[in-house]
Specification:
The complex is a heterodimer of chains A (52) and B (185). By secondary structure, chain A is mainly α. Chain A has helices at 2-19, 22-43. The longest helix of chain A is centred in the middle third of the chain and has 22 residues, at 22-43. Chain B has helices at 3-30, 37-49, 51-59, 63-86, 104-122, 141-165, 178-184. The chains are: A mainly alpha (52), B mainly alpha (185).
Chain lengths: 52, 185
């Protein structure tokens, strides 16, 4: 569900970049980047059995 | 580097991204392997990488447009490094089938690293940014086709992930298309 929404949002941002205003595209990209980072943090919960 | 050459290179980068998205689809359909959440997130970042070149083709090259793609590439690299570390221990078979001896997420890290280097290299050429106020950009067939190819492949991922995950959160290790399974029951 979350990835369907992300891909749909990217499609919208791409179409905005191609047909719409530049400022709107950059704003939507920022929102999309935050949503991607949040999705990553939601799914990156497995403990890494590593030591550095 | 002239503005025209920069726009041509941006169009070529869109074809390269379309190739990456198409290859991921091909692996999914031909090998019958469903992408995991981190795999999907790497596809998301490859698709987001395309927004910068689309802006460059539409409005002309600007440093901010390259920055857009750089941010997407860095987040994509973070995701792929995370998945590599999940499977880095000896004896771990990794996730999915290896392509040419290397798993998709490792190829993805190579792709994101290459994108970061190429984007930084493009920023070195100042002349492409100079004649911004002059002739308006008219995207030719070559660039326009590249844009619509990437848009179409991203839209295809909307349908694919909806079939895979349905209306719930995507499974960590998906083995069936949720929407097709419910329909056949």
């Amino acid at each position: 569900m979350e990835f369907t929404a992300l891909f749909l949002a990217i499609t919208v941002v791409m179409l905005t970049a191609w047909h719409g205003a530049r400022a709107l595209t950059l704003t939507l990209f920022g929102v999309l980047l935050l949503a991607s980072a949040a999705t990553y943090l939601h799914h990156a919960t497995d403990v890494l059995k590593l030591s550095f | 580097m002239t503005r025209g050459l920069a726009i041509t290179l941006n169009a070529l980068s869109l074809y390269a991204l379309a190739g990456v998205l198409a290859a991921a689809f091909a692996a999914q359909l031909l090998l019958h392997e469903l992408p995991c959440p981190l795999c999907l997130l790497q596809r998301v970042q490859f698709a987001m990488l395309a927004i910068g070149p689309i802006l460059n083709i539409r409005f002309g090259p600007r440093p901010g447009h390259y920055a857009v793609s750089l941010l997407a590439a860095v987040l994509g690299a973070v995701v792929s490094i995370r998945q590599i570390l999940l499977h880095i221990l000896p004896g771990d078979p990794g996730y999915g089938t290896a392509l040419l001896g290397t798993h998709y997420y490792t190829w993805a890290l190579i792709g994101f690293a290459a994108a970061i280097v190429l984007l930084a290299s493009m920023l070195l050429f100042d002349r492409q940014f100079e004649d911004r106020a002059q002739t308006p950009i008219v995207a030719g067939f070559f660039a326009g086709l590249a844009v619509w190819l990437v848009v179409a492949l991203t839209a295809a991922n909307v349908a694919s992930t909806f079939l895979e995950c349905g209306l719930a959160a995507c499974a960590d290790n998906p083995v069936v298309y949720e929407m097709l399974q419910h329909r056949s029951q």
